[in-house]
Amino acid sequence: MVIRYIKHIKSQHILDGIMELLTLCDKEFTPPLSSRNSTTQSNLTAKQTNSSAPYEYFENIRHQPAFVVIENGDVVGFMSMRKNYVCSEIPPAMTPNIYITTVIVHPQYRNRGITNKLYCALFDRFVGCHIFTRTWSTNDKHTRILASRKFYEYCRLEDDRGEGIDTVYYHHAPVTRTPLQIIQQYRLTGSFVFLSFLVCLTVVFLVIWLLTPGGGVFHELSIAFSTSLIASALCLLSDSILKYRESKNDEYISTLKSFGIENLQFHKDELLESIIPKCSNEIWISGYRLIMTAKASFLEALSSACRGCPELKVRILTVAPWSETFRLVYGNEDVTNNYLKVFYTLSKCAEQYGTRLEIKMTEKPIFNDTYKVDDRFVTGPYLHCVSKNNQKITAKDFFSLDINDPRKELYGIISKDYCAVWDTAGYILNCRSFYEACCAEGDKIREYTAEQKLAFIRRFCRAVTDTEDR
Question: Under 8 Å CB-to-CB from 29, ≥6 apart: which residues?
């Protein structure tokens, strides 16, 4: 078996073999290749043609470079591609790149590692290039191969190929890039050419200055021009070097955005207090910590959101303060006042502004604070440590992720993580009864012991049975 890279396919035998594979595997693709007019077609839900073979698709393939797998003289697989492809999903900044348009292996030759060998050949030949490809979301076999080759989801177009079938773009970042590739990506070729021209002119005027030692107009002008050109050359060189070094930052930012992460935050509470008042649809909150601190500024942000958006949907998910899970996290620390403040503030908003409030409590552990404000998730991992004074295990958010692209896989994972605990939560708070009782008790609640406050909260919690629809 031989894998050949062919820049321009001219062999009729190879072209016939590629057409045979396209026809054989036509219906395996979603949508079928025979219904497409090109390898980069954007509208993949268009009405299918009556053609029994992918002729238009083949006409695109035949003009593209490809890796071709040949055994005993027959074409048994191929990988076609386009170089430096740019579209609405792949920006010009992600060049030089290789966009894989089609990968097919003959059914009789599958499960022999041929697809992996094609990717190895691709990586070996195009070192330093961004590599992109796209497929449909239910193409599990190929997505597993992509994951094993360190391709990551770059963007997702929901229902792009029909209901429940997304188009998913995958990206493989270059391991290393040559200086020339970086220069090409950031359009610095003209800068370096002009810099070379300035250097040459500077040398010319310096030579004139040296050849006219006796003074005179040429002597003075040559040194003046040389000095000016040197200054211009240094400025241009400095700017070019800065742009060259910025490529590393751009790679880092691009990697974050490929996961749907807009940025990293050190102060989650400040970010939330700035975006919550602007909420226009729904807020989800889960965790032990920030919600339970009951900071006045945080509560005011929630109240402001409720005032500004009638019938705002608010979900609160936390750990039941009487549970063993709660004790393992907080020990004997009394945080019932925080529960009361948060629950009372939001229950009051539900009565005054029509906020659609749901509060659930679980006995399962929640491993991080998660906040959803409209289509934006703010979350981050707990990093556990031991306090210096009593050697008690504590947890701290050293950084938070700001994720605001619902098309990305990470967004979906976090949403499912929240919903998995929400759907199995064991207790629901009756917010109206809780609020009415708080108003009736008034300042007396402040005089309650920790046990009495806990009993007060629990009085308005209804347990959800296993047979009940959670």
Answer: none
Angstrom distance (rounded) from CA 194 to CA 231: 14
User: CB–CB of 184/94 below 8 Å?
Assistant: no
Backbone angles phi, psi at 356, to 5 degrees: -85, 95
Tokens representing 192 are: 């370096």
Rounded Cα–Cα distance for residues 466 and 319 (Å): 18
Q: Which tokens go with 353?
A: 């502004």
What does the pLDDT look like over 303-345, one tens digit per residue?
999 999 988 999 999 989 888 888 877 677 778 888 899 999 9
CB 364 within 8 A of CB 421: yes
CB atoms under 10 Å from CB of 5, counted, come to 15
- Nearest Cα to Cα of residue 25 among 118, 104, 88, 78: 104
- Distance, in Å, from the CA atom of 246 to the CA atom of 244, rounded to the nearest integer, reads 5
The gap from C-alpha 368 to its chain's centroid, in whole angstroms, comes to: 19
Place of tokens 């990093």: 383
What stretches of 74-127 show up as alpha helix (H) in DSSP? 114-125
**Spatial separation of the C-alpha atoms in residues 227 and 169, rounded to whole Å:** 52
Q: How far apart are CA 363 and CA 458, in angstroms?
A: 13
- What does pLDDT average to over the chain? 85
For 275-302, letters b (16+ CB in 10 Å) and e give bbbebeebbbbbbbbbbbebeeebbebb
Q: Does residue 262 register a pLDDT over 90?
A: no
For 424-470, the pLDDT digits (tens) are 999 999 999 999 999 998 889 888 998 999 999 999 999 886 445 44
* Structure confidence by residue, pLDDT tens digits, 110-165: 999 999 999 999 999 998 888 999 999 999 999 999 988 888 888 888 889 998 89
Alpha carbons within 13 angstroms on the beta-carbon side of residue 145 total 18
Structure tokens at 338: 């925080």
